[in-house]
Design goal:
The complex is a heterodimer of chains A (about 400) and B (about 90). Chain A has helices at about 160-165, 170-175; strands at about 10-15, 30-35, 40-45, 50-60, 65-70, 75-80, 90-95, 100, 125-130, 140-145, 145-150, 160, 185-190, 200-205, 205-210, 220, 240-245, 255-260, 260-265, 275-280, 290-295, 305-310, 325-330, 335-340, 355-360, 365-370, 375-380, 385-390, 395-405. Chain A is an all-beta fold. Chain A has a 5-stranded antiparallel sheet, with no helix packed on it. In chain A, strands 5-6-7-8 form a 4-stranded antiparallel sheet, with no helix packed on it. In chain A, strands 9-10-11-12 form a 4-stranded antiparallel sheet. In chain A, a hairpin with a 7-residue loop joins β21 and β22. The longest helix of chain A has 5 residues, at about 170-175. Chain A starts with 11 loop residues before the first strand and ends with a strand. Chain B is about 20% helix and about 25% strand. Chain B has helices spanning about 25-35, 40-45, and strands at about 1-5, 20, 55-60, 60-65, 75-80. A 5-stranded mixed sheet of chain B has the order 2-1-5-3-4, with no helix packed on it. Chain B is globular, with a radius of gyration of 12 Å. Classes of the chains: A mainly beta (about 400), B alpha+beta (about 90). At the A-B interface, loops of A face α2 of B.
Chain lengths: ~400, ~90
Amino acid sequence: MKNAVKAPAQAKAANSPKASGKSKSPTTSVALLVATKKGGFILVSDPKRRQWQMRGPMYLGNIVHHMMLDPRDGRTLLMAAKTGHLGPTVYRSTNFGKTWKEAAKPPAFPKAPEGQKGLTVDHVFWLTPGHAGEPGVWYAGTSPQALFRSEDGGDTWESVSGFNDHPMRLTWVGGGGDGTPDGPKMHSVIVDPRDANHLYIGMSGGGVFESTDRGADWKPLNAGSRADFFPDPLPEFGQDPHCVRIHPLNPDILYQQNHCGIYRMDRSSPTNGNRWERIGEKMPKAVGDIGFPMVLHPRDPNTCWVFPMDGTQVWPRTSPGGKPAAYVTRNGGKKWQRLDNGLPTEQAWFTVFRQAMTADARDPVGIYFGTTCGEIWAGTNEGEKWSCIARHLPHVYAIEAVELPQ
Amino acid sequence: MKVIIPSPLLSYTKQLKEVEAEGATIAELLKDLNRRYPGIRFRMIDEQDAIRPHMKIFVNGEQVMGLNIPLQAADEIHILQALSGG
């Protein structure tokens, strides 16, 4: 591909604490890696985040579920893609989008023994760079729910047998009919920044799971989170976490936006270290605490943003009442503040998917979200005021913010 | 033998709509095609060796449903992708 951004020498993930800090005269730009139903795009700002320039499309016509930067080298991008009819794949760029090449061996299940029915990857949904101490390692979550690992920068992928062949896997994920309308998904693949062996995954459906041995074995981590759609609303597994996040500076703090509420977990708690606490009940009752995305402040573990959707009756999955808004808490969920300055005030029925909201690491933090109707909004003062920085795009599936040198 | 490539796969064949590949069966032909144009097979055939939905393979104008179909050197292979959806 030759229609991408000018290749900077190095970029940093904007949610990396190292990329953060208050700067009165920033010399870097923010770039948004935008994955859409019809291809990939990169939006690049000026240093003050006032003007934005669109680059792309990349792989026009491909369904791009996620595009991620490798923060360990600041240059490698991976893109999870498929078309409507062709099989799934991963594209790689080692020069920040200047050129792209397909992975030599995309994520795929092993061939089943003769006479047995094997699984097939429908699409790669989630991409996560590995631990800082493991250059070249990446993880991918797929539909159906499965985990794959690359140890060569995303060129070849292997099934993580500890999960994909786990004797409980089918029980945990509940079969193909228990996922989202777009297929069941593994998402929120998280590597503990303190320990490369400590992994979390989220599954829709299935719940949150944890491994402490680099994926060799897994245990459910769902106590306290609800599954109101089951006869037992508090099962061991089977929940539908929509988005799970770990705080980069305090990795004991986890948040999740779930199908059934907003939750927080403090792994350091001597009494509730394995239990989710519902913090969404302080949201306004008319709005509720249902949504897809969840975004954490890069430095303050008590601050996070959500973007509620209508989860009533038939689940319209639109902005509640046609009045979109983000909400922020700055005290771990005790209080929530509505952030809708600049957003449409009526008859706006978009919503924001689980990967389509992100934060940069500036001070003040910039919050960005992409909509189901192809708009991208920026709130560069922590969401206090929103501006539409792109419109007329395809349905936005994912946005990631990175910092670019000038 | 001659293989006709559908437009969504032309990026693999350097935009060639007709290419050459060899094999005594469809499976061998696709293996050879993938050797010449790396990656093309997995976009058509899944990891369990099933032809993906909406992909179709014709031999001399007749659709074949599996990979263990024998081929002759003079056969003409058409790979089609159904165009549907929005």
